[in-house]
Amino acid sequence: MNIWEELPKPFLILAPMEGVTDVIFRQVVAKAGRPDLFFTEFTNVSSYASEKGRANALERLEIAPTDKPIIAQIWGKEPEHFKETVKALKNLGFSGVDINFGCPDKNVNKAGGGAAMIKTPELALECLREATKNTELPVSVKTRLGWAKVEEYKEWLPLLLNEHPKALTVHLRTKKEMSKVPAHYEIIPEIVKLRNEISLETKLIINGDIKNKEHALKLHQEYKEVDGFMIGRGVFANPYCFTDHTATREDLMKLLYLHLDLYEKYSKKHQVSYEPLKHFYKIYINNFPGASDLRAKLMETHSIKEAREVLRKV
Question: What pLDDT is attached to residue 306?
Answer without folding.
Answer: 96
